[in-house]
Amino acid sequence: MTHPSPLSAQTLGDLPQQVQRPTYDRSSVTPGIVHIGVGNFHRAHQAWYLHRLMQNGLALDWGIIGAGVCNFDEEQRARLARQDYLYSLVELAPAGTSAEVIGTLIGFCPVEADNKSLIRQMSDPQIRIVSMTVTEGGYFLDPATKRFAPDAVDIQHDVQAPDRPRTAFGAIIAALRARRDAGIAPFTCLSCDNLPGNGDIMKDVVTGFARLIDPDLGHWIEQNVSFPNSMVDCIVPATGPRERALAHDCGIDDAAPVTHESFRQWVLEDRFCAGRPPWEQAGAVFSDRVHDYEAMKLRILNGGHQIIAAPAEILALETIADAMRHPLIHAFFRKIALDELVPHVAGATDMAPRDYVDLIDKRFSNPAMCDTVRRVAFDGSSRHTGAVLPVIREAISTGHPFEGLALSQALWARMCQGTREDGSEIAPNDPLWDDLTARATVARQTPQVWLDHRQFYGSIADDAGFRSAFSRWLIRLYDDGVAATLDAYVRAPSAKT
Asked: What pLDDT, on the 0 to 100 scale, is given for residue 346?
């Protein structure tokens, strides 16, 4: 095979015939969206939905301008700029691999310390939506309450210097203030992060932050800006040499390819103060029951990811598919999902919760996906508190079983101790890794120390039954090992409520 030319607007015609590419004239696409956090998930999900519309001649006035506020965002901008903001999506389905080139990203703001270019771009009347994928850690939330916590150093900087903000939220507020002062209607703020009630949380952060700067501005934002809740779903691995090689095998020399599974879902509230693309024509669902879809996905998929990632990491398994091939981890996932997660999921979507467990089982087990355990286990301090601990709280309050959930927390603590069962080191994998490791090390002898992470567990740590179950499982993990402990849980009769 001839070595492909580097991806660019000029080389699109050189791609192999089987590679789909934009059929629309990208020079006629005008901006309508600024997206902050142009990582793999956004490019495989929201940008793909817009691409589907543009392939049908729709939404050509909704092009995406990328943005970011971190050093790695500048590296991403440079990679994409060199290839005219084009990139490839490689779909990893069990039946085979396919590729397409996405053209909806038409620019990328320079990443600057004072975010001047980003503020200027968001102040443009053409921009009608500002969307975000910055992960939960980027929302400045109190871990226990999930409410805006204004004491962060960067927040305090932006309050004192609102014209030179460091944060994405500070830049959003500066742009909204500029639009208000110029008599320009505001844009919709659209969170696409895996947070329960992500639109409500984004509103809490933006309005609370704005009131610290200017109470009148905070009130204006609350009255005029839309913050729709949304649920997003697609498994998207990180990009490394393997992913770049997969794109190359498809005939694409791409410095920033994205691989993804064949499943996607996007459920949104239809609340957009400045209009929106007709995403429903590309398969998105508009519903006033976003929270029901969200609860099922967060608790079974995101929670399930955390439940299997910890034992897989301790056992030195590389990918989520490897974990699902391990008979005890697979059985652990099935039992905890059916017995301890499903009772806390309302059956108000188009799929019964038990059928959804089967769907997630199939997606996790996809042998074509190289979704690493390390990626899934990253930032467990945010992911456990967002997806697993809310279920534990409900189980305690309603009298539902939580043995497997207690074991999941013992496995997380065991993982954070920092060594695998083969003696190898687990590299730091959480913003709070040093604290987690120190506490996990002490918890080996005194298990309750782990639950004294009050910023995570709160009232969970006060429940005697949960404390007892957690301690028993953590002691057993160290005494008997992961496999024997999982086997004990899987073989035990299911608890009755």
From this structure: 75
Range of the domain at 312: 291-490
Final residue of a structural domain among 237, 271, 288: 288
Which residue shows structure tokens 């009608």?
128
Give me the helices (H) in 250-298, please: 290-296
Class of residue 116 by CB neighbours under 10 A (exposed 0-12, middle 13-18, buried 19+) = middle
The residue out of 288, 308, 329 marking a domain boundary is 288
Separation between Cα atoms, residue 30 and residue 59, nearest integer Å: 9
* Other C-beta atoms lying within 10 Å of the C-beta of residue 339: 19
Identify the DSSP state of 401.
Answer: -
Q: How far is CA 135 from CA 138, 195, 380, 462, 478, in A?
A: 6, 8, 12, 29, 32
Residues 272 and 411 in one domain: no
Q: Would you call 189 helix, strand, or coil by DSSP?
A: strand
Residue 152 token pair: 């962060």
| Helix/strand/coil (H/E/C) assignment for every residue in 5-52 | CECCHHHHHHCCCCCECCCCCHHHCCEEEEEECCCHHHHHCHHHHHHH
Q: What pLDDT sits at residue 75?
A: 95
The pLDDT score that the predictor gives to residue 497 is 55
Per-residue confidence (pLDDT) for residue 39, from 0 to 100: 96
**10 Å Cβ neighbour count for 459?**
12
Closest CA to 93 of 250, 263, 258, 212: 263
Give the helix/strand (H/E) hosting 102: strand 96-102
Q: What is the pLDDT of residue 137?
A: 80
Query: What would the pLDDT profile of 39-57 be if each residue is shown by its tens digit?
Result: 999 999 999 999 999 999 9
Could you count the other beta carbons within 10 Å of the beta carbon of residue 289? Answer: 14
Q: Give the separation between CA 376 and CA 295, rounded to whole angstroms.
A: 19
Domain check: are 340 and 451 in the same one? yes
User: 387 and 478 share a domain?
Assistant: yes
Of the candidates 227, 196, 412, the residue with the CA atom closest to the CA atom of residue 312: 412
Task: Round the average pLDDT of the chain to a whole number and report it.
Answer: 95
**Helix or strand holding residue 105 (H, E):** strand 105-108
Q: Does the pLDDT at position 146 exceed 90?
A: no
CA distances for 282 relative to 254, 292, 412, 438, angstroms: 26, 21, 38, 48
For the stretch 365-393, pLDDT in tens is 999 998 999 999 999 998 999 899 999 99
CATH number reported for the structural domain that contains residue 141 in this entry = 3.40.50.720
Q: Structural domain tally of the chain? A: 2
pLDDT-derived band at 95 (thresholds 50, 70, 90) equals: confident
The token pair that represents 275 in the structure block: 């209009």
Q: How far apart are CA 319 and CA 324, in angstroms?
A: 9
Domain assignment of residue 4, yes or no: no
